[in-house]
Amino acid sequence: MLSFPTTLSSLPEIIDGLPNISGWETEVLSVVNHDQPVFLPTTNIRLEDVNAVFAIALHMHQPTIPAGNGGTLISNLQYMFEHPHEGDNHNADPFAYCYSRMGDLIPELVSQGCNPRVMLDYSGNLLWGLRQMGRGDVLDNLKRITCDRNYQPYVEWLGTMWGHAVIPSTPIADIKLHIIAWQHHFAAIFGWEALARVKGFSPPEMHLPNHPDALFEFVKALKECGYRWLLVQEHSVETLTGQSLTHRHLPHRLIARNSQGETISITALIKTQGSDTKLVAQMQPYYEAKTLSKQQIGSVFVPPIVSQIGDGENGGVMMNEFPSAFKQAWWDMVNNGGGKSGVVGMCGTEYLELIEAAGCKPENYPACQPVGQHQIWERVSPDNCQPEAVENAIQELKQINSNFHLDGASWTNHISWVKGYENVLSPMYQLSSSFHQKFDQLQQTDSTEPITRQSHYRNLLLHNLLLQTSCFRYWGQGAWTDHAREIYKRGENLLHIN
Question: Transmembrane region positions (predicted)?
Fold first, then answer.
Protein backbone atom coordinates (compact mmCIF):
# COMPACT_ATOMS: atom_id res chain seq x y z
CA MET A 1 0.00 0.00 0.00
CA LEU A 2 1.27 3.46 -0.87
CA SER A 3 2.00 5.80 2.00
CA PHE A 4 0.82 9.40 1.81
CA PRO A 5 -0.17 12.11 4.30
CA THR A 6 -2.55 10.44 6.78
CA THR A 7 -4.03 13.75 7.89
CA LEU A 8 -6.02 14.10 4.66
CA SER A 9 -9.77 13.79 5.01
CA SER A 10 -11.85 12.39 2.17
CA LEU A 11 -13.04 14.87 -0.44
CA PRO A 12 -16.67 15.66 -1.19
CA GLU A 13 -17.57 14.56 -4.72
CA ILE A 14 -20.31 17.14 -5.37
CA ILE A 15 -20.24 20.66 -3.93
CA ASP A 16 -23.22 22.99 -4.43
CA GLY A 17 -24.36 20.74 -7.26
CA LEU A 18 -21.00 20.96 -9.05
CA PRO A 19 -18.28 18.33 -9.42
CA ASN A 20 -15.30 18.77 -7.10
CA ILE A 21 -12.68 20.05 -9.55
CA SER A 22 -10.82 22.63 -7.47
CA GLY A 23 -9.95 23.84 -3.99
CA TRP A 24 -7.56 21.17 -2.75
CA GLU A 25 -4.64 21.78 -5.11
CA THR A 26 -2.03 21.63 -2.33
CA GLU A 27 -3.39 18.32 -1.04
CA VAL A 28 -3.68 16.78 -4.51
CA LEU A 29 -0.09 17.67 -5.39
CA SER A 30 1.17 16.32 -2.07
CA VAL A 31 -0.45 12.95 -2.84
CA VAL A 32 0.57 12.55 -6.49
CA ASN A 33 4.17 13.74 -6.25
CA HIS A 34 5.93 10.65 -4.96
CA ASP A 35 8.43 8.14 -6.33
CA GLN A 36 7.07 5.05 -4.61
CA PRO A 37 6.54 1.99 -6.82
CA VAL A 38 2.87 1.39 -7.60
CA PHE A 39 2.77 -2.10 -9.12
CA LEU A 40 6.16 -3.49 -8.18
CA PRO A 41 5.20 -4.62 -4.64
CA THR A 42 2.17 -6.62 -5.86
CA THR A 43 2.88 -7.76 -9.43
CA ASN A 44 2.81 -11.52 -9.94
CA ILE A 45 4.93 -11.34 -13.12
CA ARG A 46 8.70 -11.89 -13.24
CA LEU A 47 10.30 -10.06 -16.13
CA GLU A 48 12.78 -12.84 -16.89
CA ASP A 49 9.86 -15.17 -17.68
CA VAL A 50 8.37 -12.83 -20.28
CA ASN A 51 9.13 -12.65 -24.01
CA ALA A 52 6.71 -9.88 -25.01
CA VAL A 53 4.04 -7.69 -23.45
CA PHE A 54 0.85 -5.99 -24.55
CA ALA A 55 -1.15 -3.27 -22.83
CA ILE A 56 -4.68 -2.19 -23.69
CA ALA A 57 -6.57 0.89 -22.54
CA LEU A 58 -10.26 1.70 -22.81
CA HIS A 59 -11.20 5.34 -23.39
CA MET A 60 -14.65 6.41 -22.12
CA HIS A 61 -16.30 9.79 -22.61
CA GLN A 62 -19.64 11.55 -22.83
CA PRO A 63 -19.77 15.34 -23.15
CA THR A 64 -21.74 17.63 -20.85
CA ILE A 65 -24.40 19.62 -22.71
CA PRO A 66 -26.92 22.35 -21.73
CA ALA A 67 -29.91 20.20 -22.71
CA GLY A 68 -31.65 19.17 -19.50
CA ASN A 69 -34.92 20.54 -18.13
CA GLY A 70 -34.73 24.30 -18.45
CA GLY A 71 -31.39 24.01 -20.21
CA THR A 72 -29.54 22.55 -17.24
CA LEU A 73 -26.15 20.91 -17.77
CA ILE A 74 -26.53 17.16 -18.19
CA SER A 75 -24.54 14.29 -19.64
CA ASN A 76 -25.09 13.51 -23.28
CA LEU A 77 -25.70 9.95 -22.05
CA GLN A 78 -28.69 11.20 -20.05
CA TYR A 79 -29.94 13.03 -23.15
CA MET A 80 -29.63 9.78 -25.10
CA PHE A 81 -31.78 7.95 -22.55
CA GLU A 82 -34.38 10.73 -22.61
CA HIS A 83 -34.51 10.94 -26.43
CA PRO A 84 -34.15 7.30 -27.57
CA HIS A 85 -35.49 7.87 -31.09
CA GLU A 86 -32.89 10.43 -32.17
CA GLY A 87 -29.91 9.19 -34.17
CA ASP A 88 -28.16 6.32 -32.44
CA ASN A 89 -29.51 7.23 -29.00
CA HIS A 90 -30.94 3.72 -28.74
CA ASN A 91 -27.40 2.76 -27.74
CA ALA A 92 -27.69 4.57 -24.39
CA ASP A 93 -28.23 1.43 -22.34
CA PRO A 94 -25.42 -0.57 -24.04
CA PHE A 95 -23.12 2.43 -23.53
CA ALA A 96 -23.95 2.58 -19.81
CA TYR A 97 -23.25 -1.13 -19.50
CA CYS A 98 -19.90 -0.69 -21.27
CA TYR A 99 -18.91 1.95 -18.69
CA SER A 100 -19.59 -0.57 -15.93
CA ARG A 101 -18.72 -3.99 -17.32
CA MET A 102 -15.00 -4.04 -16.54
CA GLY A 103 -16.07 -4.19 -12.89
CA ASP A 104 -17.62 -7.57 -13.71
CA LEU A 105 -15.10 -8.93 -16.22
CA ILE A 106 -11.96 -8.51 -14.09
CA PRO A 107 -13.30 -10.34 -10.98
CA GLU A 108 -14.75 -13.08 -13.18
CA LEU A 109 -11.42 -13.71 -14.92
CA VAL A 110 -9.42 -13.55 -11.68
CA SER A 111 -11.77 -16.13 -10.12
CA GLN A 112 -11.03 -18.38 -13.10
CA GLY A 113 -7.29 -18.25 -12.47
CA CYS A 114 -6.56 -15.77 -15.25
CA ASN A 115 -4.12 -12.88 -14.98
CA PRO A 116 -5.94 -10.03 -16.76
CA ARG A 117 -4.85 -6.42 -17.14
CA VAL A 118 -6.66 -3.31 -18.33
CA MET A 119 -6.07 0.44 -18.26
CA LEU A 120 -9.06 2.78 -17.91
CA ASP A 121 -9.38 6.37 -19.16
CA TYR A 122 -12.66 8.10 -18.18
CA SER A 123 -13.20 11.81 -18.80
CA GLY A 124 -14.30 14.01 -15.93
CA ASN A 125 -17.45 14.85 -17.92
CA LEU A 126 -18.45 11.19 -17.90
CA LEU A 127 -17.69 10.60 -14.20
CA TRP A 128 -19.82 13.62 -13.27
CA GLY A 129 -22.56 12.69 -15.71
CA LEU A 130 -22.92 9.21 -14.25
CA ARG A 131 -23.40 10.69 -10.78
CA GLN A 132 -25.84 13.32 -12.08
CA MET A 133 -27.93 10.57 -13.70
CA GLY A 134 -28.11 8.60 -10.48
CA ARG A 135 -25.93 5.85 -11.95
CA GLY A 136 -23.94 5.31 -8.80
CA ASP A 137 -24.18 1.60 -9.61
CA VAL A 138 -21.70 2.12 -12.46
CA LEU A 139 -19.29 4.07 -10.23
CA ASP A 140 -19.61 1.46 -7.45
CA ASN A 141 -18.76 -1.31 -9.91
CA LEU A 142 -15.66 0.63 -10.93
CA LYS A 143 -14.77 1.23 -7.27
CA ARG A 144 -14.71 -2.52 -6.74
CA ILE A 145 -11.80 -3.04 -9.12
CA THR A 146 -10.13 0.24 -8.14
CA CYS A 147 -10.21 0.11 -4.35
CA ASP A 148 -10.39 -3.61 -3.50
CA ARG A 149 -6.79 -4.78 -3.08
CA ASN A 150 -7.69 -8.16 -4.56
CA TYR A 151 -8.17 -6.45 -7.93
CA GLN A 152 -5.74 -3.51 -7.81
CA PRO A 153 -2.88 -5.46 -9.46
CA TYR A 154 -5.02 -5.97 -12.57
CA VAL A 155 -6.30 -2.45 -13.21
CA GLU A 156 -4.63 0.88 -13.89
CA TRP A 157 -6.41 4.21 -14.24
CA LEU A 158 -4.93 6.78 -16.61
CA GLY A 159 -5.29 10.48 -15.94
CA THR A 160 -6.66 12.76 -18.61
CA MET A 161 -8.00 16.26 -19.27
CA TRP A 162 -11.13 16.73 -17.12
CA GLY A 163 -13.22 18.25 -19.91
CA HIS A 164 -11.92 16.06 -22.77
CA ALA A 165 -10.07 19.02 -24.29
CA VAL A 166 -7.68 18.39 -27.17
CA ILE A 167 -4.41 19.80 -25.91
CA PRO A 168 -2.96 21.57 -29.00
CA SER A 169 -5.89 24.02 -29.15
CA THR A 170 -6.44 24.33 -25.39
CA PRO A 171 -5.31 27.69 -23.96
CA ILE A 172 -1.91 26.95 -22.43
CA ALA A 173 -2.95 28.44 -19.09
CA ASP A 174 -5.78 25.89 -18.85
CA ILE A 175 -3.85 22.69 -19.55
CA LYS A 176 -2.82 22.22 -15.93
CA LEU A 177 -6.31 23.23 -14.74
CA HIS A 178 -7.83 20.29 -16.68
CA ILE A 179 -5.18 17.89 -15.39
CA ILE A 180 -5.56 18.81 -11.73
CA ALA A 181 -9.37 19.10 -11.99
CA TRP A 182 -9.48 15.45 -13.06
CA GLN A 183 -7.22 14.51 -10.13
CA HIS A 184 -9.55 16.30 -7.69
CA HIS A 185 -12.60 14.58 -9.10
CA PHE A 186 -11.01 11.13 -9.21
CA ALA A 187 -9.80 11.41 -5.60
CA ALA A 188 -13.28 12.49 -4.49
CA ILE A 189 -14.83 9.36 -6.06
CA PHE A 190 -12.16 6.71 -5.49
CA GLY A 191 -10.05 8.10 -2.63
CA TRP A 192 -6.57 9.51 -2.10
CA GLU A 193 -4.79 6.16 -2.20
CA ALA A 194 -6.31 5.37 -5.60
CA LEU A 195 -5.20 8.76 -6.91
CA ALA A 196 -1.65 8.15 -5.70
CA ARG A 197 -1.51 5.14 -8.05
CA VAL A 198 -2.42 7.14 -11.20
CA LYS A 199 0.91 7.62 -12.98
CA GLY A 200 0.09 7.39 -16.70
CA PHE A 201 -1.73 9.98 -18.81
CA SER A 202 -4.03 9.59 -21.82
CA PRO A 203 -4.43 12.73 -23.99
CA PRO A 204 -7.97 13.10 -25.40
CA GLU A 205 -8.14 12.02 -29.05
CA MET A 206 -4.44 11.09 -28.68
CA HIS A 207 -3.85 14.70 -29.75
CA LEU A 208 -0.25 15.73 -29.12
CA PRO A 209 0.78 19.39 -29.44
CA ASN A 210 3.69 20.04 -31.78
CA HIS A 211 4.11 23.77 -31.12
CA PRO A 212 7.32 23.91 -29.04
CA ASP A 213 5.86 26.10 -26.29
CA ALA A 214 2.55 24.24 -26.02
CA LEU A 215 4.31 20.88 -25.81
CA PHE A 216 6.77 22.17 -23.21
CA GLU A 217 4.00 23.50 -20.97
CA PHE A 218 2.01 20.28 -21.37
CA VAL A 219 4.93 18.06 -20.34
CA LYS A 220 5.85 20.46 -17.53
CA ALA A 221 2.27 20.34 -16.21
CA LEU A 222 2.22 16.54 -16.39
CA LYS A 223 5.41 16.28 -14.36
CA GLU A 224 4.27 18.88 -11.83
CA CYS A 225 1.10 16.85 -11.37
CA GLY A 226 3.03 13.66 -10.63
CA TYR A 227 2.73 11.84 -13.95
CA ARG A 228 5.57 9.54 -15.04
CA TRP A 229 4.50 8.69 -18.57
CA LEU A 230 1.93 9.30 -21.29
CA LEU A 231 0.50 7.43 -24.23
CA VAL A 232 1.30 8.88 -27.67
CA GLN A 233 0.12 7.96 -31.16
CA GLU A 234 2.87 6.47 -33.34
CA HIS A 235 2.42 8.84 -36.29
CA SER A 236 2.21 11.93 -34.03
CA VAL A 237 5.92 11.65 -33.17
CA GLU A 238 9.23 11.36 -35.02
CA THR A 239 12.87 10.75 -34.18
CA LEU A 240 15.02 13.79 -33.44
CA THR A 241 16.18 13.68 -37.06
CA GLY A 242 12.63 13.63 -38.41
CA GLN A 243 12.32 9.92 -39.22
CA SER A 244 9.51 7.51 -38.40
CA LEU A 245 10.05 5.50 -35.23
CA THR A 246 12.04 2.30 -35.66
CA HIS A 247 11.50 0.97 -32.12
CA ARG A 248 7.79 1.56 -31.65
CA HIS A 249 7.47 -1.35 -29.23
CA LEU A 250 9.88 0.18 -26.73
CA PRO A 251 9.23 3.07 -24.37
CA HIS A 252 10.52 6.40 -25.66
CA ARG A 253 11.74 9.62 -24.14
CA LEU A 254 9.52 12.44 -25.41
CA ILE A 255 11.67 15.57 -25.65
CA ALA A 256 9.97 18.95 -25.26
CA ARG A 257 12.05 22.00 -26.16
CA ASN A 258 10.50 25.46 -25.99
CA SER A 259 11.28 28.69 -27.84
CA GLN A 260 13.54 29.80 -24.97
CA GLY A 261 15.77 26.75 -25.47
CA GLU A 262 14.63 25.00 -22.27
CA THR A 263 14.12 21.24 -22.48
CA ILE A 264 12.12 18.77 -20.46
CA SER A 265 11.28 15.13 -21.10
CA ILE A 266 8.84 12.42 -20.05
CA THR A 267 8.51 8.72 -20.83
CA ALA A 268 6.10 7.83 -23.64
CA LEU A 269 4.53 4.51 -24.52
CA ILE A 270 3.80 4.31 -28.23
CA LYS A 271 0.24 3.53 -29.29
CA THR A 272 0.63 1.79 -32.63
CA GLN A 273 -1.30 2.88 -35.71
CA GLY A 274 -4.46 1.17 -36.83
CA SER A 275 -8.22 1.09 -36.34
CA ASP A 276 -8.07 1.72 -32.62
CA THR A 277 -11.40 0.38 -31.39
CA LYS A 278 -11.41 -2.67 -33.64
CA LEU A 279 -7.85 -3.58 -32.64
CA VAL A 280 -8.67 -3.39 -28.94
CA ALA A 281 -12.07 -5.09 -29.30
CA GLN A 282 -10.47 -8.06 -31.00
CA MET A 283 -7.42 -8.07 -28.68
CA GLN A 284 -5.06 -7.61 -31.62
CA PRO A 285 -2.23 -6.29 -29.37
CA TYR A 286 -2.01 -9.72 -27.73
CA TYR A 287 -1.70 -11.49 -31.07
CA GLU A 288 0.82 -8.95 -32.34
CA ALA A 289 2.93 -9.39 -29.20
CA LYS A 290 3.13 -13.09 -30.01
CA THR A 291 5.27 -12.23 -33.05
CA LEU A 292 7.86 -10.25 -31.04
CA SER A 293 10.96 -11.10 -29.02
CA LYS A 294 13.17 -9.28 -26.53
CA GLN A 295 14.90 -6.06 -27.52
CA GLN A 296 17.80 -4.13 -26.04
CA ILE A 297 17.67 -0.88 -24.07
CA GLY A 298 21.14 0.18 -23.03
CA SER A 299 22.75 -3.03 -21.75
CA VAL A 300 19.45 -4.67 -20.77
CA PHE A 301 17.29 -7.01 -22.85
CA VAL A 302 13.61 -6.45 -22.19
CA PRO A 303 10.32 -7.73 -23.58
CA PRO A 304 8.83 -5.22 -26.05
CA ILE A 305 5.35 -3.82 -25.41
CA VAL A 306 2.47 -3.42 -27.86
CA SER A 307 0.33 -0.53 -26.57
CA GLN A 308 -3.15 0.23 -27.82
CA ILE A 309 -6.16 2.33 -26.77
CA GLY A 310 -9.65 2.50 -28.20
CA ASP A 311 -13.11 3.77 -27.29
CA GLY A 312 -14.48 1.40 -24.69
CA GLU A 313 -18.11 1.72 -25.72
CA ASN A 314 -18.30 3.06 -29.26
CA GLY A 315 -19.18 0.89 -32.26
CA GLY A 316 -20.71 -2.53 -32.67
CA VAL A 317 -17.37 -4.36 -32.49
CA MET A 318 -16.57 -2.89 -29.08
CA MET A 319 -20.12 -3.20 -27.76
CA ASN A 320 -20.66 -6.77 -28.89
CA GLU A 321 -17.39 -8.58 -29.65
CA PHE A 322 -15.05 -7.22 -26.98
CA PRO A 323 -16.17 -9.22 -23.90
CA SER A 324 -15.77 -12.62 -25.55
CA ALA A 325 -12.48 -11.65 -27.26
CA PHE A 326 -11.16 -10.20 -23.97
CA LYS A 327 -11.97 -13.40 -22.06
CA GLN A 328 -10.66 -15.67 -24.81
CA ALA A 329 -7.26 -13.95 -24.84
CA TRP A 330 -6.74 -14.37 -21.08
CA TRP A 331 -7.94 -17.99 -21.20
CA ASP A 332 -5.44 -18.57 -24.01
CA MET A 333 -2.64 -17.10 -21.88
CA VAL A 334 -3.53 -19.32 -18.91
CA ASN A 335 -3.14 -22.33 -21.17
CA ASN A 336 0.22 -21.03 -22.45
CA GLY A 337 2.41 -20.18 -19.46
CA GLY A 338 -0.25 -19.67 -16.82
CA GLY A 339 -0.72 -16.05 -17.81
CA LYS A 340 2.59 -15.13 -16.19
CA SER A 341 5.20 -16.13 -18.77
CA GLY A 342 5.77 -16.00 -22.50
CA VAL A 343 3.41 -13.33 -23.84
CA VAL A 344 1.57 -11.50 -21.07
CA GLY A 345 -0.60 -8.46 -20.51
CA MET A 346 0.61 -5.69 -18.25
CA CYS A 347 -0.43 -2.21 -17.23
CA GLY A 348 1.81 0.62 -18.45
CA THR A 349 3.21 1.63 -15.06
CA GLU A 350 3.74 -2.02 -14.14
CA TYR A 351 5.80 -2.59 -17.30
CA LEU A 352 7.94 0.52 -16.78
CA GLU A 353 8.57 -0.30 -13.12
CA LEU A 354 9.60 -3.85 -13.98
CA ILE A 355 12.03 -2.92 -16.75
CA GLU A 356 13.52 -0.09 -14.68
CA ALA A 357 13.96 -2.46 -11.72
CA ALA A 358 15.83 -4.71 -14.18
CA GLY A 359 18.30 -1.91 -14.90
CA CYS A 360 16.72 0.15 -17.69
CA LYS A 361 17.24 3.88 -17.38
CA PRO A 362 14.76 6.32 -18.94
CA GLU A 363 17.66 8.33 -20.39
CA ASN A 364 18.50 5.27 -22.51
CA TYR A 365 15.05 5.05 -24.08
CA PRO A 366 15.06 6.09 -27.75
CA ALA A 367 14.21 9.78 -28.05
CA CYS A 368 11.28 11.24 -29.97
CA GLN A 369 9.60 14.59 -30.49
CA PRO A 370 6.28 15.70 -32.03
CA VAL A 371 6.08 15.25 -35.77
CA GLY A 372 7.38 18.21 -37.78
CA GLN A 373 9.53 19.70 -35.05
CA HIS A 374 12.79 18.67 -36.68
CA GLN A 375 11.99 21.15 -39.46
CA ILE A 376 11.89 23.93 -36.87
CA TRP A 377 15.02 22.90 -35.00
CA GLU A 378 17.14 22.52 -38.12
CA ARG A 379 16.45 26.21 -38.78
CA VAL A 380 17.12 27.42 -35.22
CA SER A 381 20.65 27.41 -33.89
CA PRO A 382 20.87 25.93 -30.36
CA ASP A 383 22.87 28.96 -29.21
CA ASN A 384 20.26 31.34 -30.62
CA CYS A 385 17.06 29.75 -29.38
CA GLN A 386 14.87 32.79 -28.89
CA PRO A 387 11.10 33.10 -29.39
CA GLU A 388 11.65 35.39 -32.38
CA ALA A 389 13.97 32.90 -34.09
CA VAL A 390 11.51 30.05 -33.53
CA GLU A 391 8.57 32.13 -34.80
CA ASN A 392 10.56 33.13 -37.90
CA ALA A 393 11.31 29.48 -38.60
CA ILE A 394 7.65 28.57 -38.23
CA GLN A 395 6.52 31.32 -40.61
CA GLU A 396 9.17 30.33 -43.15
CA LEU A 397 8.02 26.70 -43.02
CA LYS A 398 4.39 27.68 -43.51
CA GLN A 399 5.36 29.63 -46.63
CA ILE A 400 7.42 26.89 -48.26
CA ASN A 401 5.34 23.88 -47.13
CA SER A 402 1.55 24.12 -47.36
CA ASN A 403 1.21 20.95 -45.28
CA PHE A 404 3.21 22.30 -42.35
CA HIS A 405 1.06 23.26 -39.37
CA LEU A 406 1.20 23.43 -35.60
CA ASP A 407 -2.29 22.09 -34.93
CA GLY A 408 -0.77 18.91 -33.50
CA ALA A 409 -1.41 15.34 -34.61
CA SER A 410 -4.00 12.91 -33.27
CA TRP A 411 -5.35 9.40 -33.79
CA THR A 412 -6.57 10.46 -37.21
CA ASN A 413 -5.34 13.11 -39.62
CA HIS A 414 -8.59 13.69 -41.54
CA ILE A 415 -10.33 15.59 -38.73
CA SER A 416 -9.30 19.02 -37.48
CA TRP A 417 -10.39 20.55 -34.20
CA VAL A 418 -9.39 23.97 -35.54
CA LYS A 419 -10.37 24.44 -39.20
CA GLY A 420 -13.90 25.74 -39.61
CA TYR A 421 -14.53 26.22 -35.90
CA GLU A 422 -13.61 29.88 -35.43
CA ASN A 423 -17.11 30.51 -34.03
CA VAL A 424 -16.28 28.13 -31.15
CA LEU A 425 -12.56 28.79 -30.75
CA SER A 426 -12.80 32.56 -30.50
CA PRO A 427 -15.34 32.52 -27.63
CA MET A 428 -13.38 29.69 -26.01
CA TYR A 429 -10.18 31.73 -25.90
CA GLN A 430 -12.12 34.81 -24.79
CA LEU A 431 -13.73 33.02 -21.83
CA SER A 432 -10.37 31.57 -20.81
CA SER A 433 -8.72 34.97 -20.96
CA SER A 434 -11.50 36.59 -18.93
CA PHE A 435 -11.37 33.77 -16.39
CA HIS A 436 -7.65 34.26 -15.80
CA GLN A 437 -7.96 38.05 -15.69
CA LYS A 438 -10.55 37.69 -12.95
CA PHE A 439 -8.91 35.06 -10.78
CA ASP A 440 -5.14 34.86 -11.31
CA GLN A 441 -4.40 37.94 -9.21
CA LEU A 442 -6.90 36.89 -6.52
CA GLN A 443 -5.08 33.58 -6.07
CA GLN A 444 -1.98 35.47 -4.95
CA THR A 445 -3.81 37.06 -2.00
CA ASP A 446 -4.04 35.45 1.42
CA SER A 447 -7.52 34.51 2.56
CA THR A 448 -9.04 32.15 5.09
CA GLU A 449 -10.49 30.09 2.26
CA PRO A 450 -8.57 29.52 -0.98
CA ILE A 451 -10.24 31.28 -3.90
CA THR A 452 -10.26 27.95 -5.77
CA ARG A 453 -12.49 26.46 -3.04
CA GLN A 454 -15.17 29.10 -3.49
CA SER A 455 -18.33 28.13 -5.36
CA HIS A 456 -18.19 31.08 -7.79
CA TYR A 457 -14.66 30.13 -8.86
CA ARG A 458 -15.60 26.47 -9.29
CA ASN A 459 -18.66 27.32 -11.37
CA LEU A 460 -16.67 29.56 -13.70
CA LEU A 461 -13.87 27.02 -13.94
CA LEU A 462 -16.45 24.38 -14.84
CA HIS A 463 -17.84 26.46 -17.72
CA ASN A 464 -14.32 27.32 -18.91
CA LEU A 465 -13.31 23.64 -19.02
CA LEU A 466 -16.61 22.49 -20.51
CA LEU A 467 -16.36 24.94 -23.40
CA GLN A 468 -13.07 23.31 -24.39
CA THR A 469 -14.65 19.84 -24.81
CA SER A 470 -13.55 18.44 -28.17
CA CYS A 471 -17.06 17.25 -29.13
CA PHE A 472 -18.14 20.83 -29.83
CA ARG A 473 -15.53 20.84 -32.62
CA TYR A 474 -16.02 17.41 -34.13
CA TRP A 475 -19.50 17.03 -35.56
CA GLY A 476 -19.54 20.15 -37.73
CA GLN A 477 -21.73 23.22 -37.38
CA GLY A 478 -25.16 22.77 -35.83
CA ALA A 479 -26.45 21.53 -32.49
CA TRP A 480 -22.99 20.94 -31.05
CA THR A 481 -21.62 24.38 -31.85
CA ASP A 482 -24.89 25.78 -30.46
CA HIS A 483 -24.17 23.97 -27.19
CA ALA A 484 -20.75 25.62 -27.11
CA ARG A 485 -22.21 29.09 -27.66
CA GLU A 486 -24.69 28.55 -24.81
CA ILE A 487 -21.95 27.45 -22.40
CA TYR A 488 -19.91 30.49 -23.41
CA LYS A 489 -22.86 32.82 -22.81
CA ARG A 490 -23.41 31.38 -19.34
CA GLY A 491 -19.73 31.66 -18.53
CA GLU A 492 -19.70 35.30 -19.58
CA ASN A 493 -22.74 35.97 -17.40
CA LEU A 494 -21.05 34.34 -14.41
CA LEU A 495 -18.02 36.59 -14.91
CA HIS A 496 -20.13 39.63 -14.12
CA ILE A 497 -21.40 38.23 -10.84
CA ASN A 498 -19.22 39.26 -7.89
Answer: none
